[in-house]
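User: Hey, quick favor. My workstation is busy. Could you predict this chain's structure for me?
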Amino acid sequence: MPATSRSARLTNREGAAAGDIARMRAEAAAAIAEAQKSHERLREAIDILPQGIVFLDAEGRYILWNKKYSEIYSRSADLFQPGARLQDTIRIGVQRGDYPEAIGREEEWIAERVDRLYRPGERHEQVLADGRCILIEERLIGDGGIIGLRVDITELKQREASFRLLFDSNPVPMIICALEDERIIGVNDAAVQHYGFDRAAFEKLTIRNVQAFEIDPPWAEALTGDELTVRTWKHVRADGSLIDVAIYARRLVYAGQPAVLLALMDITERKQAEARMAFMAQHDSLTGLPNRSLLRQRMDEMLLHARRSTDKVAVLILGLDGFRAVNDTLGHGVGDRLLRAVAKRLRSILREEDIIARLNSDEFAAVQNGMTRPEDAGLLARRLLEAIADPFLLDGQSVVMAATIGIAMAPGDGDESDRLLKHATMALSRAKRESRGSFAFFESEMDARAQKRRKIELDLRAAIQDELLQPHYQPLIELASGTITGFEALVRWPHPDRGMISPAEFIPVAEETGLIAGLGGLMLRRACLDAVHWPDDIRVAVNLSPLQFRVGNLLSVVMDALNKSGLQAKRLELEITETLLLEKSGEVLATLHALRALGVRISMDDFGTGYSSLSYLRSFPFDKIKIDQSFVRDLAGNREAQAIVRSIISLGAGLGVTITAEGVETEAELGFLRELGCHEGQGFLFSGARPNAEVLGLLKASHHRKLDASLQAKARVA
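Assistant: No problem, here it is.
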C-alpha cells in the first residue's frame, strides 16, 4: 500500500479520534455543568428548609449542607468544607468549647457522637455553647452515606421547662391523662400529696378510678377550643374519703401523645361552708331548728297536701313565760341552754313528720297535720305545756318554766302559712292576756281587733311625724293654800276622722310598737315651749317611758328641749314609774343623776304599785313621790288605804320629799289628805286636763281663790 494512502488513512483515524475526544469532552463538560446546576438547585432547595440538612459520604465526609445547618453551628461553620470529616470538625469544636456537654469527658463524648452517626433512627439532643438545644436525627442512604437533620428546639425546650416548672411546682393538684385510654400518665407533687397515692400507684390508674360517681371523664363534654368549662366533681382519695373538686381541663401533647391536663381545685371546704350558710339561712343558729323562712316553706308544702284531703292542719305558737327573767337573773348562757333544752323537749313530743321551728327569742312554732277536729290540737297543746312544765336541770340548777300557746286551724282559720301564723300569734296574745300557762284558739274577732290596732299604729305614726298630738295640762294643787303649783302634761290626739282618741287606746300601741319614744320626745318639746310662757313659779311635769331610757339619748333630748324653749331646768319635772328601775338600774340611775344635775326635778309616779319601792327611794333622791290613785280612791271609807297613804306621807316627811296624791275626786278624799298633811293633789275635783289656751285662765282663777282665802282669814282674825 502506498505510503501516501496509509498516511491518509492514519490521518483520518486520528481526526475521528480527536473528534470523539472533543465530543466526549463536550459531553463531560455538559454533564458537569448539568451536575453543577443540579447541585445548585439542590442547594437552593435545601436552603429554604427550616431545618438544618447535611449530606455525608460513607466515610463521614461533608458533601453538602444548607444555610440553616451553618446557622445552627455558626461557631464551627468555618470548618465545614467538602471532603472534611464530621468527626474532625466535632473534635475541633470540642477543643474550642463549642459543646459544653463534652467538657471533662471529651474523648468519650466524641466516641459516643460518632457511634450515633452510624445508628440511624435514634434521635438525640445536643446542647451548644450558647445554650441552644439541637435535635439530631441521621439516616443511612443506599451508598452508605448519611443524611443528617438538625432542628433547633430551644424554644420548645424552654416551653417544656416552663410547663414542668408550672406543673411540678404548682400548689394546685394536676393530673395529665392520655386522651385515648384515659390513663394517668403524669401527676405533680401536689396531686400526690393531696390524693394520698404515691406516684407509681397514681400512674397505674385511669381518671375513672378517682371519680366517685361520674362515669364519663371530665373532657367528655365539648371543649371550648382547647379548654373545658369548669365543673364540680366528686373524687375519691387513697383513704376512701370524698372531696369536691372543680376541674379545669386543657388539651395538650405530652410525651408525644395527645393528652388532657386537669387542674383540680379542692372546693370541699367551700362546699361545706356553702352548705353551712344555706343551713344557717333557714335555721336558728342556737337550737338548729328551722327558722320562720323554712317554716313557711314546709307549711306551704303541708297545706298543699292537706287541700287534697279532709284533714285539718294545726298551727301552734308557743311562748315561754318569764324567759326574760331567767336571762336577767341566771345569765344569757343559762338562757341559751334553756332554749336548746326546750327545743329538744318539744321535738321529742312531736312526730317525725311534724314541723317545729323557733320564731324569735322565746317563741316556737309546731305544725301538725292529719287532725280531724280542733280537740286534737288542744290535746297536743296540753302535752306540750306539760313537757315545758317539767323542771329543767341547768348547771346544777333546777329551772321551772311555763308556756302559753295560741292555736290556729287550717282551713278554717286560713289556708296560707302567713295567715295561719298571724292568727296563731293573735291567739297567743289573747291567751297571755287572759290566762298564762294555758292555750287559746284563734277567733275571727281577734283579726278585726288586730286590724283596728294596726290602723291606730299607722295613724299614730303619721300623727307623731306631723306633730298633730297635743299636750293638755292638769293642774297640781297645793292642798294647804288651794293654789296651782304646776301642771302635768297629758297627751291628747285629735284625730281628723275619729275625733279625740283616748290615751288608753293609743298609748299601749305606742309602747308595743316603739312609737312611745317619738311621742314622748314630742310631748317634752311642746310642754317646754308652752311652759316658758307661764309664770316663773309654775312648773310643768312630763311623763317619761322606760323605752326613752333604753334608746340611750334621753339626756340630750331633755337638754335640747330646754335650750330650744328657753325654759329653766328647775321648772321641768320628769315623772318616771318605779318599774323603770327594774331595767338596767345602773344605767337608769346614772341618767337620772345627770338630769338632776341639770336642775331638773325627778318624780316617782304611781308609788306603791311596784315590787320594791322603798329600795328605790334609797338608791335615788327623788324630789317628789306621787301616790297612785288606786290608794286615793274611796280613801275616806277604806281603812287599809288610809293606813298606806298615811305611811307614804309620813315617809315623805321623813325624807323631805314632796307628796302628791293622784286621782282626787271627792271633798272627803281631799279633807282626809289635808288632815294627813299631804302636800299636793291632782284630779277631777280640781280640774281635768285642759288645753294650753286655758292654762292662764286657770292660773288667774287660782290666784283669785288664794286672794279671797287670804282676805277671809284676815277678817276672821280681826
